Amino acid sequence: MTLMNKDYEIVMGLEIHAQLKTKTKLFSTSLTNFGAEPNTQANAVDLAMPGMLPVLNKQAVNFAIKFGLAIDAEIAEKSVFSRKNYFYPDLPKGYQTSQFDLPTVGVGKMDLMLEDGSTKTIRIERAHLEEDAGKSVHDLGSNAVTHVDLNRAGVPLLEIVSFPDFRTVEEVAAYVKKLRAIVQYIDICDGDMSQGSMRCDVNVSVRKKGEEKLGTRREIKNVNSIKNIIKAITYEANWQVDQIESGKKVNQETVLWDPDAGVTRSMRSKEDAHDYRYFPCPDILPLHISQEQIDEIRKDMPELPEQKKNRLMNDYGLSAYDADVLTSDKETADFYEEVLATGIDAKLCANWLIVELFAVLNKQELELSASPVSAKQLGELVSLIVDKTISGKIAKTVFEDMIETSKDPKVIVEEKGLVQITDTSAIEPIIDEVIASDLGQANAEKFRNGADRILGWFVGQVMQKTQGKANPAMVNEILREKLK
Ligand code: MN
């Protein structure tokens, strides 16, 4: 449990900024490449020089529509860009062009599956298009100067705002993961939180259980990983309960998570919408989206995580849990389908990926993309089990070798002579030998007198003599026949 004090509950809402994968900016032809030399990708429009006129990027609009369709949201027939006025050194325009009362994407929803198998639906209030601001780079060296890089100014963002429907950190984590999967599947954002292409703000408040009225919220800004989101919420919520319990007030504030100290720190008192003096941007006409445009995009919608999950369950008989794990991000889903292409048996492939490979990756703290075993190799290993070249047990030792050497499973099996013995004429003499031994004769007697469990001793002996290579099912069958 996240909260120490069980009389309280946490209420949370999320605002997630997803950076759209357009080639150019939201209102100009400047490029959006990541990591370019500072201030080489900003032009007069991005800086709102006098007389410049913004031109709306059609692809960004199409991406917003795509997202709206993915969360079953209404796409606004008319939406309006507004100016959000504020001063900041990295915002030479003096305002951010955003959407206020008429966002492009309206109310939608997302179904979550939690680790305990339960489900929850989160309502999404809106998703609006807006431009990013520049970036202040603080150089705290001997000169202690701040540089401003305007490459990011005008980069298109989709801000996805949820209703305050979250009650636990598990729900928040599941939502962020699912949202990341969706934007990756529909290919509108790379979802990379560490590079800032998906940024997460969490509004946190607490209240006594059973109370209707929402507590005062504080907003945790820009947390850059799911791990840190969970830590930040846990700290923040307990801090708020402590405040209230000790008779102090929680003020509406924006706070920053300090991952090193493990605390949230107040950054500024939180503004309300009216502080920004929003007004419709006079330079940009209202955006009209036709039904034809929506239908056109709907036609080309790729498979979504939820659909892929259902397909894996229906076509391959995977459990809801396995299917959920495999589709929870696009990289894993693609990897699994590649394993399946050579591995044939869907359930066996799922097991080897989820249980065996993920365990190794977790232990070595590796991303799937850095896996020492490729999808094709894992598939080949599974196919060797399926066609009975090796037993499941031998496969584990082959797998260990693969992790170490990155060699193909076939090469390892050949080099080490691990091919399963499925030839009865090879197995029978070994079985005869075991039965003919002194202990074998005694145990055969016991078996015939009804001690069925003694069969395991015989199987063990045969396996030992064949270094585990005899096909266990065949050994069992022949043994029963011979011991009759
Ligand atoms: Mn925003």
Structural class: alpha+beta
H and E order? EHEEEEEEEEHEEHEEEEHHHHHHHHHHHH
- Determine the number of helices (DSSP H or I, runs of at least 4 residues): 15
As laid out across the biggest beta sheet, the strand order is 5-6-9-1-10-11-12-13
Report how far the terminal alpha carbons are from each other: 59 Å
The gyration radius over C-alpha positions equals: 30 Å
The percent of residues in helical segments reads 25-40%
Strand content range? 15-25%
The largest sheet, given as strand count, sense and whether it forms a barrel, is: 8 strands, mixed
The tally of strands reads 15
Small molecules bound = manganese (II) ion
Low-confidence stretches: none
Description of the molecule:
- A hairpin with a 4-residue loop joins strand 12 (about 255-260) and strand 13 (about 265-270).
- The protein contains 15 helices and 15 strands.
- With about 475 residues, it is α+β, with helices and mostly antiparallel strands.
- It is elongated, with a radius of gyration of 30 Å.
- Helix 5 (about 305-315) crosses helix 6 and helix 12 (about 425-435) packs across helix 15.
- An 8-stranded mixed sheet has the order 5-6-9-1-10-11-12-13.
- Manganese (II) ion (MN) binds near residues 17, 130 and 159.
